Amino acid sequence: MDPCPFVRLTVGNLALKIPVASKAARSVIHPSSSPCFCKIKLKNFPVYTAVVPYLPPESQNVEVQTLAATFHMSKSDLDKLVAKSLFAGKLSLKISIFTGRRGSSCGLSSGKLLGKVTVPLDLTGTENKACVYHNGWVTVGKDASKSSSSAQFHLNVKAEPDPRFVFQFDGEPVCSPQVFQIQGNIRQPVFTCKFSFRSTTAGDRNQRSRSLPPDAIGSRGWLSSFGSDRERPGKERKGWSVTVHDLSGSPVAAASMVTPFVASPGSDRVSRSNPGCWLILRPGDGTWKPWGRLEAWRERGAHDGLGYRFELIPDSAAAGIVLAESTLNLNKGGKFMIDLGVGTGGSGRKSNMASPACSPRGSGDYGYGLWPFCAYKGFVMSATVEGEGRRAKAAMMVEVSVQHVSCTEDAAAFVALSAAIDLSIDACRLFSQKLRKELCQPQL
Asked: Are residues 89 and 234 in the same domain?
């Protein structure tokens, strides 16, 4: 399998120093007692908002190693940015630094603008070679010409190759589609998906799925360990499963609904307090082993959202480790993403990119020293998900970082996870609305 070229542009190591003399000015909000933040802008990409740590003026070393923003660019994104820069001036990254708290009041920003920094970018060739655009201090503020009495802002801006495998579903997971690998203009079939129902009633709990191998439900009892076999009263959706096969027909991954999606008492929606659950499975040692666990529910709001939480299940761990937790717009859809580099984006709102729950959010190491984060770090995967009103209008695309794929089963596990998040849109549909016939349990 040949990957597609991608580039990851990162902004990090932010820090701010303001001379003591500036503290006497009453109009200045000094960062030693008030927080600082910045807004990071790149043409055609969402705006990031990040906290800027304050360092004492006498400090010489920058020990802050966190990432503040990450921009992911495909080859087509790069071509567009390079083409636009030819006609609209040189491409640049723009950073506005503010003192004071983030947020707004009566439509006005509560922060006070301290200064702006512009970093010119030349992205040509960055899909093959890393490039550092800036690493060090820069003078900001009205007195930028007087380095001794002006604020100093530290940042690191660099671009690195980030090749990815790109997969495309040739239809919705419920329709048992083929999955193609995309490489430029080439579409090559690599997997097939089989959607089916698995009985979870007490009398049939040992009945295997029509598409799972005979040992899918084995003596290890993963079904009862991670999900629920109970027949629940009231409205529920249960027993869905998707098995991913390679071109030889061998099953290489699966997603199985182990906890039904049940309407909360007195309502017609799946709540956060009682989410539905999928297990993502991989073959190993002659049986199926849990690899990940996906919980999903319906969030209330101006626009209902699909809330989700995905956790990795290490072989030797008693509990899973959360890799992603966020919300997708149920009407418009969005992008399910696992990115262990940056926790906030898009004007400071919580994004699909999340740091591990077991590591300090915003810390420098992001848990990299702990298994499995020695392997899972940076961008991991993303999947486009269509909303309730746009089902079957576009084929789902899945991107997986090359560093996380060492065999066919690795890629298949991410494909199965993508199928589960897509099917969760239907599983979390209001119970007052009817499901499509393909998703209704056949009557025996």
From this structure: no
Identify the domain boundary among 161, 180, 205.
161
Same domain, 217 and 99: no
Please check whether residues 395 and 370 belong to one and the same domain.
Answer: yes
Here the CATH number for the domain that contains residue 152 is: 2.60.40.150
Confidence of residue 442 (pLDDT cuts 50, 70, 90): low
For residue 181, is it within any domain? yes
Distance CA 432, CA 304 (A): 15
Look at residue 252 and tell me whether its pLDDT is greater than 90: yes
Sheet holding 92-99, edge to edge: 48-51, 36-41, 92-99, 112-120
Phi and psi at 64, nearest 5°, equal -80, 125
Total domains in the chain come to 2
Same domain, 136 and 59: yes
Q: How far apart are CA 270 and CA 252, in angstroms?
A: 30
The yes-or-no verdict on residue 211 having pLDDT over 50 is: no
For residue 157, the one-letter residue type is V
Say whether 223 sits in a helix, a strand or coil: helix
C-alpha span between 341 and 321 (Å, rounded): 16
How far is the CA of 148 from the CAs of 59, 107, 139, 178, 302, in angstroms?
14, 35, 10, 64, 50
Taking the mean position of all CA atoms in its chain, how far away is CA 427? 21
> Would you say 49 and 362 are in contact if contact means Cβ atoms under 8 Å apart?
no
Query: Angle at Cα 239 formed by Cα 234 and Cα 242, nearest 5°?
Result: 145
Residue 1 falls inside a structural domain: no
| Nearest of 196, 344, 222 to residue 291 by alpha carbon | 222
The single residue listed with the structure tokens 């007087």 is 146
pTM value? 0.81
Range of the domain at 430: 164-439
Residue 337 and residue 266 share a domain: yes
State the burial class of residue 258 (Cβ atoms within 10 Å of its Cβ: 0-12, 13-18, 19+).
buried
Closest C-alpha among 216, 255, 222, 218 to residue 239: 255
Better-predicted residue by pLDDT, 40 or 142: 40
CB 95 within 8 A of CB 25: no
The residue behind tokens 């380095």 is 147
Q: Which of 161, 188, 203 is the last residue of a domain?
A: 161
Judge contact between 347 and 47, C-beta under 8 A.
yes
Question: Which pLDDT value is given to residue 303?
Answer: 79
Q: Checking DSSP bridges between strand 349-350 and strand 379-386, what pairing results, if any?
A: unpaired
Tokens 């007692």 map to which residue? 33
- Kind and range of the H or E run holding 399: strand 397-401
The sign of the torsion formed by the CA atoms of 340, 346, 352, 355 equals positive
Asked if the model's pLDDT at residue 82 lies above 90, the reply is no
